[in-house]
Amino acid sequence: MSRISNFIFAAIFVLCGTLTVFAGQDEQNGHAYFTQAELPNMVNFLPPPPEFESSRFAADQTQYLWGIRMRQDEERAAMAIRDAVYGMQTIIQEFCPILGLEITKEGTPELYTLLQDVGATCDSISDRAKQEFKRTRPFVYYNQQTLVPEQEESHINNGSYPSGHTVLGWTMALLLSDINPAAADALLARGYEYGQSRVIAGYHWQSDVDAGRLGASVLYAKLQGNERFREQLAKARQEFIEMTQGPSKVKEINAPVGTSRAYTITGVPATSETRGIIIQNGQKVYRP
Length: 288
Prior knowledge:
Low-confidence stretches: 1-28, 248-260
Helix content: 40-55%
Mean pLDDT: 85
Largest sheet: 3 strands, antiparallel
CATH class of the largest domain: Mainly Alpha
Radius of gyration: 22 Å
Shape: elongated
Strand order of the largest sheet: 1-2-3
Distance between the termini: 56 Å
CATH architecture of the largest domain: Up-down Bundle
CATH superfamily of the largest domain: Phosphatidic acid phosphatase type 2/haloperoxidase
CATH topology of the largest domain: Vanadium-containing Chloroperoxidase, domain 1
């Protein structure tokens, strides 16, 4: 087999692994809200990665040394190792205690479906930029061991810029902050650290991580225009409220039988501008 054929085969293998890894720990793959062609092309809005020996690259090198020092903190190093496992189970494990609700396929199906489908959407947005820039990862540049050595072989030829892990972690932080705004600060802080874990582990430069956060923000803005996403988000929000606050107490209203008039859960007549959970024809309805 020629060297070119070997390269093509390796590239396909890496790409396929990236596209399927989020759902690999579950029997259902999830349904991405967009195809790769429909997603924003990060090559068109990201600046190129810092050139070697530039001042921007010097900042990356400084952060690499910071990451090495952070490995001495056993608790932070353990977090970085956990965050290196790309997938839904890691997101659930790390973010749900902050969210305030355990997410499972059986117990919270609407939330589970939302996370799974958003995760599938995250999987491929960074691929075109990685292929375009082909940036060398820090552990390869320095020829040093990472914090997760068992993953090094699979990442040697996989471009470093932008960070796909960071796209996933920051998108999930934004998503879960929409589900529980009261915990938004803590969720966003954990999402930030999820990206920093990639610097600490030695798999990404800081500018890779920063670019990943930008890509995640663009992706989340894109999701707002998807009707299926908006509908699933509304279902997930309602499920979260019901699971964390218990059954709603509805004030009894003297209204004609069969009326279509709507009321808030405190018994106040709802208008077209009312948002949140309302009661209409005896059914709870969520208006985002």
